[in-house]
Amino acid sequence: MLLIGSHVKYNSATQLLGSVKEALSYGATTFMFYTGAPQNTARSPINKSIVENAQKMMEENNIDINKVVVHAPYIINLANTEKYDFAVSFLKQEVKRCEEIGIKYMVLHPGSHVGLGEEVGINNIVNGLNDVLENSKVTILLETMAGKGSELGCNLDQIKTIIDKVTNKDKIGICLDTCHLNDAGYDVNNFDNILDEVDKKVGLKFVGCIHINDSKNPISSHKDRHENIGYGTIGFDTLIDIIYNKRLEDIPKILETPYIGEHAPYKEEIEMIKNKKFEDFKANIN
Ligand code: FE
Ligand code: FE
Ligand code: ZN
User: Fold this and answer.
1) How far apart are CA 27 and CA 266, in angstroms?
2) What is the pLDDT of residues 70-111, one digit of tens each?
3) How far does residue 161's CA lie from ligand 3's centre (Å)?
4) How many angstroms separate the CA atoms of 151 and 222, rounded?
5) Are 77 and 111 in contact (CB under 8 A)?
6) Ligand that lies nearest to the alpha carbon of residue 255, given by its number in the listed order
7) How many Å separate Cα 8 from the centre of its chain?
8) Which residues sit opposite 151 in a β-bridge?
């Protein structure tokens, strides 16, 4: 079965049940969510009966909870020591929340060194991960980044360096983001080359999630601005090839493409992906 979905909302009232319903409304077979607002760390307690109802709804609709992913808030920065203790303690709580909900994977931006330099930044990330992952039942997937500012994890060597130094190898992995890879300088038209490099450096089994985004900018731009699929510099056919690459069959593919005004694009994009046919759906919106 094609594992395709998008990031969906999560609010304190409907929690996971609201997220599942939103994913189903797009025709998705998996999804990703933040356990609260992505740009802050305010989190509400998890309601057990909502979790049970949501899990039941997932089962009834063939959504495998083992393939559903949480994204850690992007203000969490393990690379810089300024808010390091807060970042580590927040991530530990986030792991606990995932465990309570039954989620096995959490995507994390490795962090930005903000002037400390690559080596120090990476060491901070490793120390933080080793602390957080010590007793974790959740696997943290390090997202490949575009290389904006002092972002770390913008090439596979940095990802390899981090993973090599993480003690709990069962609980660390990678999330490949097509827009970020493109913006970082990887040619996503030859995705098998990228997968070969991942396999050689860390092992393909570490890949736990793929973010499917087109890019507003050309290769090596280091910008990180997502575009709707088929409307950017990567293009529809290339993204389809990645989505249907046999080596990635069991890995959830998640759209993080921009809304068109108030309109979520995911129903249309998932439909195009299922049909393997591009349609100018934006023309029909407003
Ligand atoms: Fe991300
Ligand atoms: Fe992403
Ligand atoms: Zn991005």
Assistant:
1) 9
2) 999 998 999 998 889 999 999 999 999 999 999 999 999 999
3) 22
4) 10
5) yes
6) 2
7) 12
8) 112
Amino acid at site 214:
D
pTM beyond cutoff 0.85 = yes
CA gap 245, 129 in Å, rounded: 30
- In the reported structure, the alpha carbon of residue 225 is separated from the centroid of ligand 3 by a whole-number distance in angstroms of 6
Residues for the chain: how many in total? Answer: 286
- Residue of 279, 187, 182 lying closest to 225 (CA atoms): 182
Query: Which two tokens mark 272?
Result: 């195009």
Structure confidence by residue, pLDDT tens digits, 158-209: 999 999 999 999 999 999 999 999 999 999 999 999 999 999 999 999 999 9
- Ordered by where they begin, the domains of the chain are 4-281 (3.20.20.150)
CA distance 125 to 109: 10
User: How far is ligand 3, taken at its centre, from the CA of residue 215, in Å?
Assistant: 9
282, 228 in Cβ contact below 8 A? Answer: yes
Q: Write the CB contacts of 105 (distance below 8 Å, at least 6 apart in sequence).
A: 67, 68, 69, 70, 138, 139, 141, 173, 208, 209
Distance CA 218, CA 231 (A): 12
Pairing label, strands 4-8, 69-71: unpaired
| Pair of tokens at residue 104 | 């096995």
* Ligand 2 centre distance from Cα of residue 99 (Å): 22
Rounded distance from Cα 256 to ligand 2 centre (Å): 6
